[in-house]
Design brief:
alpha/beta, 2 domains, ATP_PRibTrfase_HisG_short, six-stranded mixed beta sheet, binds phosphoribosyl ATP, binds magnesium ion, histidine biosynthesis, five-stranded mixed beta sheet
Length: about 210
């Protein structure tokens, strides 16, 4: 049996065609079904539905053999203990700094930065030579600059609509983000044949998408 960890929402939606191309269709729809373990049309494959940020943990501990997670989540988690064989090119966005549209440039001064990406932000500002005090938030980052909690935020941007709706604007690109297939290291050895076959199927599908 192969267990694949995925989060509900955009990653699941965008991964579905890839999974289906490999013959993996969930028997229940996670949007309406409350089951956390989903059987699929492949007897030998099941999905576990978890929070996006928990995917690396499940795969690291071998509770799932494989997982699909955003590069943002993997970098923040520290994914040295996982294999990351494939960029699935889904759930694409950009990790950026953002500030109030009237705020002065973010360079040349000490900054307070609100984000859920504490590690990534620390590394980024250190590399820029900017002194930054990072404030960890779990959501609604956009609010922080509006109420004086922070000078800027580090968050994901797709269309930019969320920033715009809150009088913020994107400033600097930190990195492009997409979702990756990750594999437990022991499973890669123990279940090599099944996992290699699945990787080949995903790769073949991705190749047809250019
Ligand atoms: O909500 P939960 O805690 O369960 O987890 P999550 O919010 O991380 O899950 P989900 O499904 O929202 O995101 C999972 C992954 O999708 C992220 O880790 C990213 O790799 C990827 N992804 C791609 C995004 C976006 N695009 C995205 N736009 N994740 C979040 N957003 C949010 C962003 O944080 C901001 O609030 O959408 C808003 C910005 O969108 P625009 O279009 O207004 O710019
Ligand atoms: Mg979310």
């Amino acid at each position: 049996m192969l267990t694949i960890a995925v989060s509900k929402g955009r990653i699941f939606e965008e991964a579905l065609p890839l999974l289906e191309a490999a013959g993996i269709t969930p028997v229940d729809d996670p949007k309406t079904c409350r089951k956390l373990i989903l059987r699929t049309t492949r007897e030998d494959v099941q999905l576990v539905i978890i929070r996006a940020t928990d995917v690396p943990t499940f795969v690291e501990y071998g509770a799932a053999d494989l997982g699909i997670a955003g590069k943002d989540v993997l970098l923040e988690h520290g994914a040295e203990s996982l294999y990351e064989p494939l960029d699935l090119n889904i759930a694409r966005c950009r990790l950026m700094t953002a500030a109030h549209k009237n705020a002065p440039p973010l360079s040349g001064r000490r900054l307070r930065v609100a984000t859920k990406y504490v590690k990534i932000a620390q590394r980024y500002f250190a590399n820029q030579g900017i002194q930054a005090e990072i404030i960890k938030l779990y959501g609604s980052m956009e609010l922080a600059p509006l109420v004086g909690l922070a000078d800027c935020i580090v968050d994901l941007v797709e269309t930019g609509n969320t920033l715009k709706a809150n009088d913020l604007e994107p400033r600097d690109l930190i990195m492009h983000i997409s979702s990756r297939l990750v594999v437990n290291k022991a499973a890669m050895k123990m279940k090599n044949r099944a996992i290699a076959e699945l990787l080949n199927q995903f790769e073949a599908t991705l190749a047809t998408q250019g």
